[in-house]
């Protein structure tokens, strides 16, 4: 790598948002772009631990960045997968109400989905749900036909191949360390040498807030890692789930609750829960970082969040260490599921942004600064919306470097 070359744009983060941004940039204009990734491969963290759902957009507040980018990005994702020959399926999913007090939440979801432009939404009675998911038990349901499944690691690798073919570059095994300014240029110090660029984009996910600070930008929030743990259905039990089965989500919590997801690579996942992780890359229960925990405990917003959600948090931790409790949550959707039908599978860590006042950031958060753009909150449905988000960021960059 020629360290004296000056790139027009450098992107930190080789996940699906960083690579989508690079690809969209190269589509719009012939610019020199380099993607910097700390790991040896792309999609090593949030993207690579994604459940693989192509979300419809039904959950998100109409007019929000999530709603806008998900509904547009969903169709862009389907088109991209079709063009690139990436295995995917528009299989649809069912959101179910199991208690009478959940009916009004299902009503609100249906209205929200229609406001977000979803077509073909269908309310189902219990006997109609049996036609889609024979093993499900509920009092009402909502069929969402736009939902699908894909492998986002394959998608990101496809982005990477197209970036290289279009003249873009990658610098892997390169952890970002600091930023210096040299005239009109930015010098990115990494663990694998320096990179000179005119413009910087921070798509670092779990470390996006820290990188913003290293770049002299106050992120105004802190990333709090939540681990989502999955079980998988044993082969003999996979017939209990045909496609995707979701509960009505808790409107006061930004997670969707445990659900069943048929995977494009085969098999059925059950989960995830949402437990506080004690390390930013805390994929295992035993993972612990003194530095990460110290930063968390010293952040005022953490204690305000804890005061609001401590009961739910204790419940999630209990379910994390108690398989019987986890199975009991699954049985609310499919009563036939038994203790021996599932076994522990992988986990992912969600980079959840938290405001100083303790509010969990609900929408995407993209902050612009001098010669920089920082993507500070891009949880689900960011993978679904990645092509739309990348296009939006790329257009912002082009307008900035053209000024």
CATH level-two architecture of the largest domain: 3-Layer(bba) Sandwich
Provide the low-confidence segments as ranges: none
Number of helices: 10
Radius of gyration (CA) equals: 21 Å
- Any idea of the CATH class of the largest domain? Alpha Beta
The CATH homologous superfamily of the largest domain corresponds to FAD/NAD(P)-binding domain
Major beta sheet summary: 9 strands, mixed
**CATH fold field value of the largest domain:** FAD/NAD(P)-binding domain
Mean pLDDT across all amino acids: 95
The outline comes out as globular
Number of strands: 22
Q: Into which percent range does the helicity of residues fall?
A: 25-40%
Q: Tell me the count of domains.
A: 3
Distance between the termini: 29 Å
Structural class: alpha/beta
Strand content: 25-35%
General description of the model:
The protein is an alpha/beta fold and 403 residues long. It is built from ten helices and 22 strands. The chain has helices spanning 16-28, 65-84, 103-115, 126-132, 152-165, 208-214, 290-297, 300-321, 323-331, 386-401; strands spanning 6-7, 9-12, 33-36, 53-54, 88-89, 93-97, 122-124, 140-144, 148-150, 169-171, 176-182, 185-190, 193-197, 200-202, 222-233, 244-247, 259-262, 268-271, 275-276, 342-354, 365-369, 372-377. The strands form four sheets. Strands 6, 7, 8, 15, 16, 17, 18, 19 and 20 form a nine-stranded mixed sheet that branches. A six-stranded mixed sheet has the order 10-3-2-14-22-21, with helices on both faces. A four-stranded mixed sheet has the order 1-13-12-11, with no helix packed on it. Strand 12 and strand 13 (193-197) form a beta hairpin. Helix 1 (16-28) packs parallel to helix 5 and helix 1 (16-28) packs across helix 10 (386-401). The mean pLDDT is 95.
